[in-house]
Fold GTP 3',8-cyclase.
Amino acid sequence: MAERIIPLADHRLLNAAPAVPTSLETPTGLLSDALARPLQDLRISVTDRCNFRCVYCMPKDVFDKDYAFLPHSSLLSFEEITRVAKIFVAHGVRKIRLTGGEPLLRKNVEKLIAMLGDLRTPDGESLDLTLTTNASLLARKARALKDAGLRRVTVSLDALDETTFRRMNDVDFPVADVLAGIDAAHKAGLGPIKINMVVKGGMNDQEILPMARHFKGSPFILRFIEYMDVGASNGWRMDEVVPSSEVVRRINAEMPLEEIEPNYTGETAERWRYKDGGGEIGLISSVTRAFCQDCSRARLSTEGKLYTCLFATAGHDLRALLRAGRSDEEISTAVAHLWRARSDRYSELRTANTEGLQRPVKKVEMSYIGG
Ligand code: SAM
Ligand code: SF4
Ligand code: SF4
């Protein structure tokens, strides 16, 4: 039986403004947390809304017409997001991913991309600016996104079979429109494009092979994501997780694979390539092979709360500092203190003790914190 559903509104109250230390610091670009992990990656949720109701993320019975999404006044403005991003870049962030909810639903998101595109790292480099999308609006927006300075996109697609995909997105959205979005992004030069497939056992695992066959030899990198116990409303059960090892086993039986080296330390996906030269796939095994030890990601929620882990139960209210007239130096120092104190490693602890782990009751929903 699915576990009890806890509305998100409860969780959003669990946030406090971080303390601002009196002794202010100049960022060095070399911030490290309590487990010696640098701060390199910032994921920004630009909206908590979505036009899909993926069963593993925003199940319809929770995210229904009565659901209290954030009011517009709660959202960080583009100026506020850019100000926070600039502070993070000074601390060492080199990669920014816009997410949500569905980020392309945020009005004029291209304008935000252009503002973030103007930021430079301490050594003068531009950022690796990317976005994760369900692609429903991508065919229409790909060109404008590229022109605004977006480097690449990751597209979520859970099945090629029409019935299965519609059951997963739960709003009857057709596969063909996602494929058209991927094609438009490719033509606009938003590559290399990664395709994310969340595998939920008994729901879409029969699509592993058709998806692998479809994207083999294409310019797109298909990545299989283990269904995670994120949030509090998807009724997650361990027996619905299809381990990455099983995904590899099934594909390898038909299309032989070999494992290859990661591109960089901290890469979330394990990489495998087809022995016949048909390209590569990725496996994101956050349940069976946690990658907390290299996790260099911070998350900024739609309303400006900083989360140091996807499975956090509480965030740090940076918006309160922004709107209280705190200076960049003050906010930067507060962020430095928060990151230095960070010791999150939820997935590792879960892997070590999957059955016995006391799951926090009020984990934040992915659509709010940003996937
Ligand atoms: N709406 C956009 C999309 O779907 O691409 C961006 C936000 S979505 C929360 C980001 C990513 O998180 C997607 O690739 C989605 O499939 C993944 N995701 C959401 N819930 C998940 C879960 N319970 N387990 C694993 N991945 C999940
Ligand atoms: Fe929307 Fe993305 Fe969540 Fe699906 S995974 S409901 S598209 S935010
Ligand atoms: Fe990073 Fe938390 Fe995920 Fe571990 S569980 S990889 S610390 S976000």
